[in-house]
Specification:
253 residues, mainly alpha, 2 domains, two-stranded antiparallel sheet, 13 helices
Amino acid sequence: MIPSKTNTLQMTTPEGIVFALNLASPITRFLAYAIDLACISAFTTILGAIIGLLDILSSDIASGAMFVAYFGLQIGYGILFEWLWRGQTIGKRLLKLRVMDAQGLHLHFSQIVIRNLLRFVDSLPLFYLVGGAACLFSRYAQRLGDLAANTIVVRTVDVAAPDLDQILAGKYNSLRNYPHLMARLRQRTTLQEADIALRAVLRRNEFEPGDRLNLFALIAAHFKEFVEFPQEAIDGISDEQYVRNIVDVLFRG
């Protein structure tokens, strides 16, 4: 029996705040993978031309090197891009998809490796039949690689920024003294993570005092893992003010 399907995954923080993630459909994921296959084919062609020079030494060496390079690209392409681009390949980036941990936690390198190693199984016997069937029988459209790695694929959305001049007015942002660290923070933060921080700031007055402290401590700790600002930049400011500064950096540039 096929389980009831859903287009969103809802997650609740320990403070009772609910966030929803839009799940990618199997069709959109297949289109992204088709783009990635075209990219892999192009890389293989370029690499083949380079390896072809080994024919001068030995055709056997050239054939062996091409065989290794082909399988290396098949596996390494997804691992490399999803690690460097925080859950995105070229195809996923073009179609605005992203791999995430199924609990919304930080995506670990081991998860990326597992889901890409099992891609061969998902692609059996052809045209991604096993993976497509797994998506149909999975509540959150997960292929076997996602189930093993505990990952999901979501659709990224453009987050519309409110009038931050009113929300953040009158607050000095000490993080702005470090533009290179600000750029690194923007590069490492996903749209979903930026959206969570923004919504927390917007809804801060709706929380009970204890829940408010715990929520901003959790979000602040999460962003501090991305970039370590000098101690003088964060001394004397609360976790809530730190998150407000992060929102200022992410949405006002």
